[in-house]
Amino acid sequence: MTSAELFNQIKAKKSFLCIGLDTDIQKIPRQLLDTTDPIFAFNKEIIDATHDLAVAYKPNLAFYESLGVNGWNSLEKTVNYIRYNYPDLFIIADAKRGDIGNTSNLYARAFFDAMDFDAVTVAPYMGEDSVTPFFTYVGKWVILLALTSNKGADDFQYMTENNEKLFERVIKTSAKWGNEDNMMYVVGATRAEMLADIRKIIPNHFLLVPGVGAQGGSLEEVAKNGLNKQCGLLVNSSRQIIYAGKDEKFAEKAREAALEVRDEMAGLLEKYL
Amino acid sequence: MTSAELFNQIKAKKSFLCIGLDTDIQKIPRQLLDTTDPIFAFNKEIIDATHDLAVAYKPNLAFYESLGVNGWNSLEKTVNYIRYNYPDLFIIADAKRGDIGNTSNLYARAFFDAMDFDAVTVAPYMGEDSVTPFFTYVGKWVILLALTSNKGADDFQYMTENNEKLFERVIKTSAKWGNEDNMMYVVGATRAEMLADIRKIIPNHFLLVPGVGAQGGSLEEVAKNGLNKQCGLLVNSSRQIIYAGKDEKFAEKAREAALEVRDEMAGLLEKYL
């Protein structure tokens, strides 16, 4: 998918919402536990209930890996289900991978070939040859960690040399490895004040923004500082939407929660774009 | 496993060899392709042929994930096989994970609970709360990326503030999060000249050293600069050992290659310890 195609989706849906499928077997409604694949059953209902309000879904791999082979199976089924039923949606593997070149090649194969994800999140610590193998798949994306939403972001990401912070160097350096049609950046919503600075470095790239909702970031602040002329934002919400309800009406409740975010996004697109 | 128990293994076997199970379906002998699980069949023969010469095995997750559910299944079988047949061996998930706290918790569950790995490699970019959840499993280890063996290591790992490089800050800061019985560091053999400096910061921690062999690092240099009084080194070799032979005698050839490394290690332990 190109950035123009993604922007078309955003305009059509008046939404730049990414729904995080952080599906935890301990948090899904009890009645699903009797099905053969409770994780997939939950995801399917959430997706069916919200697909017209979101432009992207983002399963975080940890939730699936923690269940071993069964979890990996649920993940594959989820990706296939979205691709088959709602082919325009953008699917992100939140995997935070990254290894030496010949190994990153295999991660690319895992997410872009064995599964049909559109994008994978990658950690920048190992540098260029850990990132560029993903670009051999045309139309696919790397979403590189830049400034994350967690407390630990302060440990290393603000390290400074020649007036340049580590996350700024990551962005400046890596922007040369790819382009605006195969590279996005993770910038946490809890750091919304930094978005304006980051926009000066990369005015045109898409940013994936986690941390709105459960982690405390403000959507208005993110939009004000982060929107560009192609929207340029995917804002993720996970727990706030998928666990909005706890009983058999969980999908309906998820839709209500997603609708609320979508309506706010529609207003922000009108206001700032 | 404690560091003392690991050292006992090293003394008993006169070896600090870790064998990387980077098992690639495109590189294993053709006759294995007729078995129900060629990846596991290959690993099993390699392990049976080398278990008395190595103290650790390290499957790199990318190789398994690239095969989807089947790959994950081969991985689980491999870990179970080692644990059941050779319980003293140290098993490392070379996964380079790392995410916000509640998500790293799930990665810990994936590798230490759903599977019985002893250690997992972790990327440091997201800081403390991406690392410490792994410590809730007593006897298990984090192996944190410090200075990697690839070319891309130069992109960010040498960034300097107040005379301290990023990889040094990673080591100094993170050494306070854990201790010498739950934390190791990855230091590439292609950077052997840095090992002596790193030993000044963390004299007692174990280091996992990739890059000897196919990537060009020298074992003698690594030993001279990296050995401490508890050995303190696990040196990994993957392709050089597991693909030493290409036909039906591949396991025998792998044993010969491992024996050569082990004999060199026995000499180095005698010389420097």
TrEMBL record, chains A, B:
Gene3D superfamilies referenced in this protein's UniProt entry, alphabetically: Aldolase class I (3.20.20.70)
Active-site residues, as the UniProt record annotates them: K96 (proton donor)
GO MF term (any one): orotidine-5'-phosphate decarboxylase activity
Leader sequence segment: none
Family per similarity comment: Belongs to the OMP decarboxylase family. Type 2 subfamily.
Stretches assigned to the Orotidine 5'-phosphate decarboxylase domain: 16-254
Enzyme class: lyase
Name of this chain's protein: Orotidine 5'-phosphate decarboxylase
Enzyme Commission number: 4.1.1.23
Entry keyword Lyase: yes
GO biological process, one term: 'de novo' pyrimidine nucleobase biosynthetic process
Catalytic activity as recorded in UniProt: orotidine 5'-phosphate + H(+) = UMP + CO2
UniProt keyword annotations, A-Z: Decarboxylase, Lyase, Pyrimidine biosynthesis
Domain of life: Bacteria
PANTHER family from the UniProt entry: OROTIDINE 5'-PHOSPHATE DECARBOXYLASE
InterPro entries according to UniProt: Aldolase_TIM, OMPdecase_type-2, OMPdeCOase_dom, RibuloseP-bd_barrel
This protein's pathway: Pyrimidine metabolism; UMP biosynthesis via de novo pathway; UMP from orotate: step 2/2
